[in-house]
Amino acid sequence: SGFVGNARPVRRLTRDLLIALGADSPCLARNYLFVGPPSVGKTELAKRVAHALGLPLVQLDGTALRDREHLFSLIDSQLGHRVCAVQNDSSSAEGVLRYPPFVVFVDEAHLISRKVQESLLTMLETSDRSVRLRSGIARVDRATFLLATTQASKLDKALRSRCVEIQLRPYSLSEVAHMIRGFVRGRAPSPSEWDEEVYAKIAALGRLVPRRSFEIANELINELKTTEHPEWTTSTHLRVVQDMMELDDNGLGPLDVEYLTVLDRAGRPLGEEAVSTALSTIDRVTVVEDIEPYLRRLGLLSLGVRGRELTSLGQEYLARYKASH
After folding, report:
1. Distance between CA 14 and CA 324 in Å, rounded?
2. Within the chain, what is the greatest distance between any pair of CA atoms?
3. For labelling alongside 6, which of 15, 112, 166, 232 has CA 20 to 30 A away?
4. Per the confidence metrics, is the pTM higher than 0.85?
5. How confident is residue 86, by pLDDT bands cut at 50, 70 and 90?
């Protein structure tokens, strides 16, 4: 309820959750892999799944998982006293640690090393759901496993085959504008004066990313609270905020221009490493997960087998930018 966007994937998850809630143990029978660009609601969906099942949520990051022993130490740390004591299993001479129902969400799963991915396959196998640790065997047959990735192709094929892939698409302008409307309610001094054009403009300036759009909306709220020109319209105040944040009408700023300039100067396609080296002041994650996807979405950048390359639209945009600055 209240989740904006990606109606079909949400409907599918809702159906599976209803089935799970009718079972003896509240857990999803399958593993799920949320696939999509950054900021499309992957983490929010995981939180809602855990809430719907009434289970604790263990949130992990793929970069932090060194091995399966480390994985379970992180799970134990977050579950705390909920972990059951070691139980004897008549079918095994080893001690068996039987875990209670919980939901584990692993973000950026493609950053888990291949070796660790392979070591977790039995845990994700529906007929097994166990992992051999130094202290014995951990059974997680009552756990729900959710993984998220922006680059599904980098995941081990065997691991992907054990998951139901949920494809999530980027938000539309109207969807983000709807979220902003809910965000400003109770925060803005006069939200009734915000017309549809203001919400749509904030969504565009925020690159259709809710988090960024909320930041811009908050800047506008602060501007309205402190302005020396209360007679100005909300749209006029938004232009002041836009100018202070150095954003054009598409939400592009100095970092995006710096990226486009690197490609323009190269005059040829560049690989990821070459671009990251040239953009020494911008971290690689920002380049790959923020700058590049949005430039591609606007049609200013193409990504082919030879690397990253300016499109004709990108060249035109950069020429106009240079002429106006």
Report:
1. 50
2. 79
3. 112
4. no
5. very low
Residue 92 in this model has a pLDDT that exceeds 60: no
With tokens 């992957």, the residue in question is 42
Across the chain, how many H-helices and E-strands are there?
15, 11
Q: pLDDT tens digits for 67-85? A: 888 888 888 888 876 555 4
Give φ, ψ of 24 to 5 degrees.
-65, -40
Paired with 310 in beta bridges are 301
What digits encode the pLDDT tens for the residues 254-313? 999 999 999 999 999 999 889 988 988 888 888 888 899 899 999 999 988 889 999 999
User: Which ranges constitute the DSSP H helices of 210-311?
Assistant: 210-226, 234-244, 254-266, 272-278, 284-286, 292-297
Pairing type for strands 102-107 and 57-61 reads parallel
Contact 185, 192 (CB under 8 A): no
Angle between helices 42-53 and 7-21 (to 10 degrees): 20
Length of the chain: 325
Six-digit token pair at 225?
Answer: 């609270």
∠ CA 192-196-200 to the nearest 5 degrees? 130
Residues 205-217: b if buried by 16+ CB within 10 A, e if exposed: bbbbbbebbbebb
pLDDT at 290: 87
Q: C-alpha 134: how far from its chain's center? A: 33
H/E stretch holding 190 reads none
Structure tokens at 290: 């923020």
d(CA 196, CA 219) in angstroms, rounded, equals 18
pLDDT band at 219 (very low <50, low <70, confident <90, very high): very high
Residues 6+ apart with CB under 8 A from 277: none
According to the model, what pLDDT value does residue 83 have?
54
Asked if residues 153 and 105 have their Cβ atoms less than 8 Å apart, the reply is no
